[in-house]
Amino acid sequence: MTKPEIEFQEGPAPEELVVVDLVEGDGPEAVAGGEVEVHYVGVEYDTGEEFDASWNRGETIRFPLGRLIEGWQKGIPGMKVGGRRRLTVPPHLAYGSAGGGHRLSGKTLVFVIDLIGVG
What we know:
Largest sheet: 6 strands, antiparallel
Number of strands: 6
Mean pLDDT: 95
Low-confidence stretches: none
CATH class: Alpha Beta
Helix content: under 10%
Order of helices and strands: EEEHEHEE
Oligomer: single chain
Number of domains: 1
């Protein structure tokens, strides 16, 4: 797969997590509390501005789901290796409300995640 382009999102930001499978995987399934290896791109919902992408570093990243933002903890389980999924994550499932001390606090975030492996 190649780095995805995330299209600008229309309308008001959703209040709850939105999960959309862009490509259905056919490998092992990610489970809550498990470990995942992913490639991802993240943009701000309101501006479409990219704030992070593993693709830019040229390597995937592997980590336990329990260490990630709640939107990923809820949005990745059930995804299968080989799949690509878009998560639209409201602030309360990302970095909290505005003024929370993180540069992305108060922002709705959009991620496109490719599941490379589970462990």
